[in-house]
Specification:
Layout: H1 7-13, H2 20-23, H3 31-46, E1 48-50, H4 51-56, H5 62-80, E2 92-94, E3 102-108, E4 118-120, E5 124-126, E6 129-131, H6 134-146, E7 150-156, E8 169-170, H7 178-193, H8 200-221, H9 231-253, H10 259-284, H11 292-296, H12 301-304, H13 314-323, H14 328-340, H15 343-353
Parallel strand pairs: 2-8
Antiparallel strand pairs: 1-2, 3-6, 3-7, 4-5
Helix pairs in contact: 5-7, 7-8, 8-13, 9-10, 13-15
Amino acid sequence: MLRSGLRVLDRVSRLFVPLSALLLLSGCSSLGYYGQLASGQWHLLQAREPVAEIIADPARDATLREHLAKAEQARAFASAQLKLPDNRSYRVYADIGRPFVVWNVFATPEFALEPLTHCFPVAGCVAYRGYYTQGAARGAAALARQQGQDVYIGGVQAYSTLGWFDDPILSSMMGWGDERLATLIFHELAHQRVYVKDDTEFNESFATFVEQEGTRQWRQARNLPPQQDSTSQQRDQFIALVLASRERLKALYAEPLAVPAKRAAKAAEFERLRREYRALRDSAWGGVGRFDAWVESPLNNAKLLPFGLYDQWVPAFATLFKQVNGDWTAFYTAVEAWGRLPPMQRKQALENALH
């Protein structure tokens, strides 16, 4: 994925990668694809080292040791105070020697915003396929383009196996600040605590709330002032622009237009998104172009897919947390109850919490 340095794009890249070992049980004929997943996951597992041993070794890089020591403080806080799983995840480290651990390939039809999904045991259906090498991802993307699909490749710096393996802190995460690494740990451990099959919006909104509230409490525990993130408003405004563009495209694709006319209107809509972004950047943000790289690179349907997944139901989970008076154990129990509801009833419960 192109990096703009903004957390919204980091969140887009952090979608769950299916468990390679369990994928082999699905009976799918794509043995080559599953083989590279199994091989990639195996090499990742083999690279793990206990964080405590690295911190205690004076021969290791001092910056790495300091960064990991702070991460372990956040990891201990996650289990002790946020009541997140107390296991070896994020208590091990793996140097993977590359900037991304996997590359996700998203695809949509040319005139539709629904993703081409792939369904797996445990993880359920997801809107992408993950590859442990960039070359394999590019090859899959090229084949999809030949079939007339819109395609987007997103590099992933971290992911969760939902507790099936001891997920490591990765070398690809070492360029992050201490607090950003802490929030990632809170987010991914939340997925281990509650995960609902086939409901990405529910899972990601839940984990995002745990990340946000956990970070607030983590700062409070260290006597730090509330986070003053000047980019949060810009992020929200940018997401609003993208979601508005997506709604206009959805309406366009429903129109009975000839293919050439629809293709031209689609291109015009993406140019409108660029114009509106530049106007917002130059008028309200003082010309600070935090999303320039994303906006100015090629745009298509697939590139819009992940937006909105992480934030849609965050206010509903915040309401639920208040209703249980900030008791994390009671909160997770209530979230699990929502998760057991049939999809339509679950969505209605979330809607009710917003009003």
